[in-house]
Structures are given as structure tokens and as C-alpha cells.
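Lab channel / #folding
Pinned by the channel admin:
"Please post every new chain as: sequence first, then the C-alpha cells as a reply. Keep commentary short and put observations after the output so the thread stays searchable."

First post following the new format, from NK:
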Amino acid sequence: MADHQDPRVFFAAERTLLAWSRTVLGLMGFGFIVERFGLFLRVVLGYQTEPIHRSFSLWIGVALILLGAVLAVISTVQYRQVVRNLGPQEIPPGYWVNMGVVTNLVLAVLGLMLAVYAALT
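Reply from TO:
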């Protein structure tokens, strides 16, 4: 149990989790843009007659998307460890502490789906 008897400790942990969520969204969004940039260049440069090959941008983009998904899971695990160590007086009564957890896990699943989609198309 923590020595603090203050709900601000819990809210600080939740703000940290939400900051990680923003980082995850940024990584996944940037990964998608990088992944699609190779396709965009091929179309703009007029390589429509050749089959579109998997390029370096595809794998960099997929790696960024997967990094975002992994960070979503890791930040969720860390947040749950912090909340587990808090006392009941530090969590406001009736507050649902799992909203950020659900959000991050959904982001991780969507990131995995996006990475699979990007790798297969």
C-alpha cells in the first residue's frame, strides 16, 4: 500500500497512461503513413504497369505500428501495477479505473490488425 492518502496519485498514474495512449496513436498513425508512402511514390512516379513490390517503407511502417501496439500493452501493465499498489482511499469511490486499460488494449488489438492488413496488402 502506498504512503500517500491522496487521490492525486491515482490521477497522475492515469494521466501517464493516457500520455502513453497518445504516443501509441502517434506511432501507429506515423507507421501507417510511412507504410503507405511507398505505394504513393510508385503511383506518382508512374510505376503502375509493374507489380507493386514490398518496399522498405512497408516494413518500417509495420514496425512502427507494432511498436505502438507493444507500448500500449506495456503501459497498461505498468498502470495496473501502480493501481494495484494504491489504497482504497486513493481511488475515488465509484470511479472506473479500467477505462484507460480498456482503451489501451483496444488500441493494441487495432494496431495488430492494422499491421496485419498493411503487411498483407
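NK: The chain has a mean pLDDT of 88.
TO: also worth noting, The radius of gyration is 19 Å.
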